[in-house]
Amino acid sequence: MSDAIEAHLEESRRVPPSASFVARARVADRSLHAEADADFAAFWLRQAREQITWYREPTESLDDSNAPFYRWFADGSLNLTYNCLDRHVEAGGGDKVAFTWVGEPGDERVITYAELLADVERAASALQALGVGKGDRVAIYLGMVMELPIAMLACARIGAIHSVVFGGFAATALADRIQDATCKLVITADGAWRRGQIIPLKDIVDEAVASCPSVEHVLVVRRTEQEVAWLAHDTWWHEAMAAADPRCAPEHMDAEDVLFMLYTSGTTAKPKGIVHTSGGYLLGAIMSHQWVFDIRPDDVYWCTADCGWVTGHTYVVYGPLANHATSVIYEGTPEHPSWDRHWQLVERHKVTIYYTAPTAIRALIKAGEDAVERHDGSSLRLLGTVGEPINPEAWVWYHEHVGRGQCPIVDTWWQTETGSIVLSPLPGLSTTKPGSAIGPLPGMKPVIVDEQGAEVPVGGGGYLTLQRPWPSMLRTIWGDDQRFIDTYWSRFGPTVYFTGDGARTDADGDLWLLGRVDDVINVAGHRISTTEIESALVGHPAVAEAAAIGAEDEIKGEHIAAFVILRDGHEATEELRQALATHVAGLIGKFARPKLLLFAPDLPKTRSGKIMRRLLKDIAEGRELGDATTLRDPAIVQAIKADADRQMHR
Fold this sequence. Notes:
It contains 21 helices and 30 strands.
């Protein structure tokens, strides 16, 4: 860290909200926290009744009789699309812009709430015409086109369960997710634009679906218009929409009916299908979106996340629409066609709230201040970060150069599993600090514990747990209740949720996230299990054994470093190194391609056979090696380090 940054951090360690912001803020005191702490079940029931339009209003709040399989508002009945669309249109808000969508090549579409409702109804009717009904699973594999949120909402309207799969996943990973959920239908496109290139989504789906007997239909959006193979089960989206009934009444859903599943990496090679239900998830999306982003009727809100991840579900689709917000969706990446693309869009569309990942911020820093400053960003009033802890240097740059030193920054922490934000500054209440998530939203109860589960005193660090249920919490892992218990509710007791993250508090009691404590690597916000990478490598005929770790990366937070032992008869060549990296990318996705892949005669193991990943991390990050005296063969580390030195100095 430079001396200038260090000095500035000391000066700006505490950034209080401005008086003008506080004067208009939704949350400017701790009365909501106090109400929730006094009786959190009653607090959430009040919010649910006030914020959600119900067909049958709930009389029950939390049912904890079968913990950890908690239930919220179980006697209530609702539909998410009614809450996101119909009620606004019926109240006279149909002409308000729901989304301004911008394609990577520069095409744009502005869609109002009334127009979005009409598209969702047609899409829901089209799904019904293809035999999809309540409880059926639908896989959605698309780029960030308008058909993606429309497809999600169409599923929600008829009670089908959507499973959105990020368009960067390869065919094998897509097939695993389709098969696990036994999806009946897949929605994809001919292709997707990515950095000026076409990602052949339809070809990838064809390969995946060949091993998925549950799939009866594939619905194909025309986006990039290149030639694609056409199979008997394929239907064009635009043709299905043209033939569909323009009206589709929303299905009445019980609050605990499943809304969607979303797959996330765990500590095994098999991804976890995280299950979220209707009532509690919607409440979490509504309230956190209001509180954290201080949403006002005239805001133009831009969450840059892809809907293949939970941020896109909660803060691109369900939260903003339920709150009748106007949002921007951009199809492409920040650097294409130039590094000022985001700032062009902020200026053009007068964006007031900008919510992105630390990875994107660090990449934008490399592009330089000029890319920001040659565009008018004066419309911005609030900035946010999501996906991983933000380093203080990036926070300061974001605050100074994007926010002009005037915009509060909400540094949010949450997970696929939590459904909505858990920790964040509240912009009209919190004094922020560069790199700190500050504290919990109303109703949440984070507790940092030690190995024995005892609470760590203020100023200490340990494991982050949540010790009070919340409405948007995951309900189970699809098809595997025992894994749900073992993963989240066993380490510290059946009513203590283990997040898998480390955290500490400072002397003020403010929270700082320390990253994963399990075997999951966070690459630019993509969580990938080490086991998944290792399984992909060992699946190659040249590989006998492999280990993967996450190493520090100044842009992505972490990158993947892989260590490979070859089978007899295979030579450690540069061609094989590239082939193995490509093999991993082909099975999981390009984002999982190891940045560093090293050949090893063996892995550094203790005499009991345990791999000392600490030493692998030392090698990958170019540090002086730690103590290796407990290894079965200390010379192994030097052999691996020699290969690492050659690769790093090429």
